[in-house]
């Protein structure tokens, strides 16, 4: 995952004053929001996955789109990083290995994931938000894209999704053949 530069101290340090209002797909080190002051973990905060304490060494905040609001992650940094690195491939593996038509329907309906997500530890609080677009790690003060490692976009994603839809059709047809015999 590409790491981005530290947050500028004020808007005068960036070349693009319109950066915070820009579409998140073009986020780069020069277009990072410049007015937000990140928080610290609350007393007794623990990771929903590992149950380890969340400290300033493993605290993560995430920004959702389009509200662009920052919220604390309920996963520690190592779990967030693991999700970034593995969730897309896990989706592909699950689709390829699934022998359950209901599971395959659900996965294909969702489509190939693009961004990190977890409804419990990384909820989208604003009803208009569609996904997480950016992460901030307190351990180093750096911003990271919320795009999953290996995720494809645009035409490549559409082609993958079309192949998955065809896989579902083929599986449904095969099931009909075995139940009508």
Q: Explain this structure to me?
A:
By secondary structure, the protein is of the alpha+beta class. The chain is built from three helices and five strands, in the order βββααββα. A five-stranded antiparallel beta sheet has the order 1-5-4-2-3, with no helix packed on it. A hairpin with a 4-residue loop joins strand 4 and strand 5. The radius of gyration is 19 Å and the shape is elongated.
Molecular shape: elongated
How far is the first residue's CA from the last residue's CA?
Answer: 50 Å
Q: Structural class, from secondary structure content?
A: alpha+beta
Helix share bin? 25-40%
Task: Report the strand count.
Answer: 5
**Poorly predicted runs:** 1-32
Per DSSP, the total helix count is 3
| Spatial extent as radius of gyration | 19 Å
Strand order of the largest sheet: 1-5-4-2-3
**SSE succession:** EEEHHEEH
Query: What proportion strand?
Result: 5-15%
Largest sheet: 5 strands, antiparallel
Average per-residue pLDDT, rounded, comes to 83
């Amino acid at each position: 995952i590409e790491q981005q530069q530290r947050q500028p101290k004020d808007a005068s340090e960036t070349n693009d004053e319109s950066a915070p209002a820009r579409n998140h797909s073009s986020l780069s080190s020069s277009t990072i929001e410049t007015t937000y002051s990140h928080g610290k973990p609350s007393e007794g905060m623990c990771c929903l996955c590992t149950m380890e304490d969340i400290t300033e060494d493993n605290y993560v905040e995430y920004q959702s789109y389009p509200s662009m609001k920052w919220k604390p992650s309920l996963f520690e940094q190592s779990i967030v990083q693991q999700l970034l690195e593995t969730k897309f491939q896990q989706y592909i593996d699950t689709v390829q290995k699934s022998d359950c038509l209901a599971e395959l329907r659900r996965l294909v309906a969702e489509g190939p994931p693009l961004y990190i997500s977890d409804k419990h530890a990384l909820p989208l609080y604003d009803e208009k938000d569609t996904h997480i677009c950016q992460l901030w790690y307190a351990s180093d003060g750096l911003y990271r894209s919320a795009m999953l490692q290996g995720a494809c976009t645009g035409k490549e994603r559409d082609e993958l999704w079309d192949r998955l839809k065809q896989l579902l059709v083929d599986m449904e047809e095969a099931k009909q053949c075995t139940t009508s015999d």
